[in-house]
Specification:
This protein has 211 residues and is mostly helical. It is built from ten helices and no strands.
């Protein structure tokens, strides 16, 4: 999606929220960002079935939280924040929840569109071979993988990434975001260096820039 298209989508979602049309706002958000969020979960969690269950949690959280969304960040950044929290929650509760599937029924009227997105995205993912670099990336800690995905694959700005990594439901001061962005950029560079060393060891790439 081009920047102009993303800006137009954000305006549409916000206009629907302002008009009190929660169902259409959630639908447009999922139509616009659902596939990339699910792709992010597949990359982070390394398992399509697990990512599918976490996507269900994400959709439920989106539906429940949309009324209280205050646009302190973009809907896209908020979506990644919800997805990261859902993934962390799922991992923490994995032992207690083992063997159970997470239904989409609690996502209200947007369950149907969420299921279509999930089915189409996972079907497409099954036909794609995972790159060797992606396999090497899976050796890194989860937060390092998240930084690489959000910066390289999703091209989020550093303050946006800081919002995703920091946000816990409250507004974050600009100065705090800026400090966190600097810290995350340093961590990102360290993660890239680790990935580059692994790739060089495997004879995959000669080197790269600093993103």
């Amino acid at each position: 999606m081009l920047p102009d298209e993303r800006e137009a989508l954000e305006r549409q979602i916000r206009a629907l929220c302002d008009a009190g049309d929660k169902k259409r706002a959630a639908t447009r958000l999922l139509e616009g960002y659902g596939r990339e969020v699910l792709g992010f979960l597949v990359s982070r969690l390394r398992d399509r079935d697990t990512a599918s269950e976490v996507f269900s949690l994400f959709t439920e959280d989106l539906w429940r939280g949309l009324d209280g969304f205050r646009w302190q960040c973009s809907a896209r950044v908020w979506s990644y924040t919800l997805a990261r929290h859902a993934a962390s929650r799922y991992t923490r509760e994995a032992r207690r929840r083992r063997g159970r599937n997470v239904p989409l029924s609690r996502a209200g009227p947007v369950s149907e569109i969420a299921e279509k997105i999930r089915t189409a995205t996972l079907a497409s993912a099954r036909t794609e071979s995972k790159s060797l670099i992606a396999r090497l990336r899976e050796r890194l800690p989860a937060d390092d993988q998240t930084l690489l995905i959000l910066r390289i694959n999703r091209r989020l700005a550093w303050t946006e990434i800081a919002q995703v990594m920091l946000h816990e439901g409250e507004a974050v001061e600009e100065s705090v975001l800026e400090r966190e962005a600097v810290r995350l950029r340093q961590r990102y560079q360290s993660a890239k260096d680790k990935l580059r060393k692994m790739a060089l060891k495997e004879g995959l790439v000669p080197g790269g820039g600093d993103g």
